[in-house]
Design a protein that fits this description.
elongated; transmembrane; membrane; single chain; transmembrane helix
């Protein structure tokens, strides 16, 4: 492709990217305006939410990933901790006095921030749990394949394995001992 064609393609891509960025920033601005508008309508609720959801804000700032997984897991659990007190405010007395009473209770803080701590625990523990599960699943699959292999050898005899050296696990850590041919090729 000529330089003229490449620059035209790059220009079109940059214009498209710029339009998407402006569209995204427009949605962000609209979302902020809606939240502020609702916040003015329900100021006592916003007081409880602002104090209760601080761990989510911290998680959002601290999380360096573009996907913001920490903010998502902490935010969901944090919201679960704040919701009962929002409902209490809505169902009993939706005033600033009651909101300040809720915010001033240390037990309420413990519940809201404890729920956020559970979100952090999920964020840090989930990869390890998934890794253990996948390793278990993989080991099960390996055992199944070894069973099939044994059945084939039983059915067809040892002659199908001629020329193939058995793979030896050297300590259960997944590493395999080199074959004599590999040792000879390596100069050992």
């Amino acid at each position: 492709m000529s330089n003229k064609g490449q620059s035209a393609t790059k220009g079109a891509a940059s214009r498209k990217g710029g339009q998407q960025e402006r569209r995204r920033s427009g949605w962000k601005l609209l979302l902020i305006l809606v939240v502020l508008g609702l916040g003015l309508a329900v100021l006592p609720t916003m007081l409880v939410v602002a104090v209760g959801m601080l761990p989510t804000l911290v998680a959002y700032i601290v999380d360096g990933r573009r996907e913001k997984y920490a903010a998502f897991s902490v935010g969901c659990m944090n919201f679960c901790g704040v919701l009962p007190f929002m409902l209490q405010l809505w169902l009993r007395d939706h005033t600033f006095a009651h909101a300040w009473k809720i915010v001033g209770d240390p037990i309420v803080w413990m519940i809201m921030y404890g729920a956020a701590a559970c979100g952090w625990l999920i964020y840090y523990a989930a990869p390890h749990v998934v890794a253990v599960y996948l390793r278990f699943q993989l080991e099960r699959r390996i055992q199944k394949l070894r069973g099939y292999q044994k059945e084939l050898v039983d059915e067809w005899g040892d002659s199908i394995t001629r020329g193939v050296t058995p793979v030896v696990d050297t300590g259960g850590d997944g590493t395999v001992a080199p074959t004599p041919e590999e040792e000879k090729a390596a100069g050992g």
